[in-house]
Specification:
The structure is a single chain. This protein is mainly α and 162 residues long. The mean pLDDT is 86. The chain has one domain. Helix 1 runs antiparallel to helix 2 and helix 1 packs parallel to helix 3.
């Protein structure tokens, strides 16, 4: 029986060594899996932040482009009507596609804007259409409402000076 004792001790040593290596590897694998999961989650959060920033930038650009275009048309229509009043022989009625550039800006708001901004931009567009084609007077209330909504959507703080 004494001849088997060294062999049993060697087998126990080998088994405990292999078991130790296996357990160490298992712990390392679990730690690595947790690290990878944390990295995936951090990457997903980073992408969400980038998407939110990109959407904010598109929204801001769409809002600004629409408002600038609206005021450009407002000035152009005012001048056309003023010249028509001074000289009735000058054409006053614009082409049917006259407001297409403003309509294109409205489309960007419909894509990137909030629901409230979409509604208010539609109202501002309709006011401009009425002014251009139906000889209605300028109603700046709709554009003012839109600008107020834009400021709220973009988080621009208003501070009354007084």
């Amino acid at each position: 029986m004494d001849s088997w004792l060294p062999l049993v001790i060697a087998l126990l040593g080998l088994t405990s060594t292999l078991l130790g290596v296996w357990m160490t590897q298992r712990v390392a694998d679990c730690r690595d899996e947790k690290r990878q999961q944390h990295e995936r989650q951090a990457e997903q959060e980073r992408r969400l932040r980038e998407d939110a920033t990109r959407t904010f930038d598109h929204r801001r650009d769409a809002y600004l482009a629409f408002v600038e275009e609206w005021w450009r048309f407002s000035d152009a229509i005012f001048q056309a009507k003023m010249f028509h009043d001074l000289d009735p022989s000058t054409p006053h009625e614009p082409d049917h596609d006259y407001l297409d550039p403003l309509r294109n800006r409205l489309l960007a708001i419909r894509i990137y804007g909030t629901g409230q901004a979409k509604s208010k931009a539609d109202a501002a567009f309709e006011d401009m259409r009425d002014r251009a084609f139906e000889d209605a007077g300028l109603r700046v209330g709709a554009i003012d409402d839109l600008i107020e909504q834009i400021r709220a959507d973009l988080g621009v703080l208003t501070r009354d000076v007084g």
